[in-house]
Amino acid sequence: MGVISHVLQQDRMAMSDSFLREQLCESFEVTGVAWDWQNSAEDFGFICSPVGVMPVDHGDPEYRSGALLGTHPLVRWHAVTGDLHPQTSGRVPWEIASRSTRRRVQDLLAEHGCEEQLSISYHLGPTTHRAFILARTGRDFSEDDLEIATRLQPVLVGLSRHLALLRTSDADGSWGTCWNLTPREVVVLRLLVDGLSTQAIAHRLGASPRTVHKHLEHVYRKLGVKDRLNAVRAVLTDQAPDGPLPIR
Question: Which end of the chain is less packed: N or C, by CB atoms within 10 Å?
Fold first, then answer.
């Protein structure tokens, strides 16, 4: 949780994948960790820690077309099931990725000690996804590894939502600057203005209601108000130091 707290305090509005990759490398017994992303059928890729641990020829037609990745058992698993939960390549049923289907990519990964993989996805859409892929050689990840990943995954989902909300809520930094709000407080205030209850805010961000209450206490104090109604009024009226704040 200290890692997540560190990320939440940063000014950046994108997932700190390099920092999280390094932390995952230290937390699991792995050859390496990749941040895997896809924006469309033509726009996809991955970045590894350590650099070069899972090399691929990006000029290879089989890679560029997506045919190579399409045979990966974890890619097949998430595409077929739509299941966001962590999964390992060794646990994917043969009915989803047969031995012959997965052989090409598995042989390539084995050359670099990365054939056993654990996927921790935090976004999964029809043509988009974001995930951290942990890789090792020799044996599949244990049940304990999978349990840790399962506990970590909702935190990554919440962090991703936090950063997405921060980008749309305070792109120019005005919300944070006006009242000296932290990035997390900006996001909580944004959801408050949108009419979400404390419970709903907690669910959206993968946090506890108690934590959200604490953030709201800080927001109220900085805005000089005592309740949510006056907090929303401060945002929507000229009570802001520089006039009404921009509403998306």
Answer: N
Residue 221 Cα distances to 99, 190, 205, 217, angstroms: 60, 16, 22, 6
Model-level pTM?
A: 0.69
Q: Give the lowest-confidence range in 14-18, 135-139, 193-197, 217-221.
A: 14-18
63 Cβ contact partners less than 8 Å away, ≥ 6 residues apart: 56, 57, 69
- Grouping H, G, I as helix, E, B as strand and the rest as coil, residue 83 is coil
Separation between Cα atoms, residue 186 and residue 98, nearest integer Å: 47
How many CA atoms are closer than 13 Å to the CA of 112, on its beta-carbon side? 18
Q: What is the spatial distance between Cα 104 and Cα 97, in angstroms, rounded to a whole number?
A: 12
Q: Please compute the mean of the pLDDT values over residues 184-213 and round it to a whole number.
A: 89
pLDDT score, position 247? 46
SS3 205: helix
Joined together, the tokens standing for residue 206 give 């993968």
Beta-bridge mates of residue 38: 44, 129
Q: Scanning the structure block, which residue is given the tokens 């408050």?
A: 192
How far apart are the C-alpha atoms of 200 and 188, rounded to whole Å?
A: 11
